[in-house]
Amino acid sequence: MGDVIQTPDAVVEASAAAAEQSSVSSAEEKKDGKPGDKNPFLDPAPIPVFEGPRGIRFDFNQGARVILPARESGQWHAVLRDLEGSKNPLVLRSSV
């Protein structure tokens, strides 16, 4: 279990390295006046990260992503709703 917890020195070193890399990319951006090509956000996982019932996978990276497993018979019926806002369906898709 000691391997999982980082020592304060390791955290400081990692933070310093990240800050140095960030300042270098900012300096490059200022030099040529163009933002770097690097995306400031992490790329989402190749498949949605949350697993629901019956093998359904979903997440909300770059919008709502849902993967429905193949069915032996019948079809999926998926409805995504904004339960905190208007409660209207955001996506209604049959024959999935």
From TrEMBL:
Q: Where is the composition biased (Low complexity)?
A: 10-26
Basic and acidic residues bias: start-end ranges? 27-37
Domain of life of the organism in this record?
Answer: Bacteria
Start and end residues of each stretch annotated as Disordered: 1-46
A UniProt-annotated Pfam family = TibC_1st
Leader sequence residues: none
Indicate the segments forming the Autotransproter heptosyltransferase TibC/BAHTCr-like N-terminal domain, all copies: 52-85
What is the name of the protein in this document?
Answer: Autotransproter heptosyltransferase TibC/BAHTCr-like N-terminal domain-containing protein
